[in-house]
Amino acid sequence: MSSLDVAGTRVEYLEQGQGEPVVLLHSSASSSAQWRTLAGRLSERYRVIAPDLHGYGSTSNWPGRGGFRLEHEAEIVYALLGRAGVRAHLVGHSFGGAVALHVARTRPDLLASLAVIEPVAFHLLRGDDREALAEIEEVASAVRAALASGDYFGGIARFVDYWSGPGAWETMPQEKRPGFTARLGKVALDFEATLNEPAELAEFGAMALPTLVVQGTCSPRPTRRICELLGHVLPDAHTATLEGAGHMSPLTHRDAVSALVIAHLDSVSVTMST
Length: 274
Description:
The chain is of the alpha/beta class. The chain has eleven helices and eight strands. An eight-stranded mixed β-sheet has the order 1-2-4-3-5-6-7-8, with helices on both faces. Strand 7 (211-216), helix 9 (221-233) and strand 8 form a beta-alpha-beta unit. Helix 1 (36-42) runs parallel beside helix 11 (254-268), helix 2 (70-84) packs across helix 3 and helix 4 runs antiparallel to helix 5 (152-164). The protein is globular, with a radius of gyration of 17 Å. The chain starts with a strand and ends in a 6-residue tail after the last helix. The mean pLDDT is 94.
């Protein structure tokens, strides 16, 4: 792992391979290790860069300078894109997908393409699906309440079971639970950022960037709805649905997700098309 300083925060990131740069952004309560298999496959043809986002993996916690927003997480991405030196392909899952959408909306000039796997851009539900928004707001409220009361195990269990299915927390190996529990505070901040992003859905209509949008048929309604909305409004979007997959498809359906991402990248790669 390599590291760099981003506004006083020590950020750790994986870098391997050579070629066009591909930046991989992980989900909440995870780390760059989520992408180990995909990174290995991509590094045969691409330069892969996968950071640990604020408070995850080996990256320091968010320093708390004001309300946490996607723009603050995106500072890590901008720093890495600056080091890349050329336009990069950006891939994000869940919270990483929401960060990727923020970067693509605000600095499309830095990107060659975008791929998002069920981005938790909950702000896009505000004017289009109040029921789906209310569903995820209830989960966010439960996480905040658990954090405030000190019930970290209860809060992270609610979070894990929502995204991975009822009983997922109970079947998680005991030795892995403390690590997840310690991330509850950052999970609450991730909800804060994704629910309060100011962007409206219509703003993405001008984002003429080759984009892959992936969802699973068994995922919660909020992220399925977000993917549907993006598929309709993005001018250069290809959508893919994984039958039987849930929100954590990059882990549970690793080969299928990897195949979709690789095919997308190869289709828009300057190197592969020449």
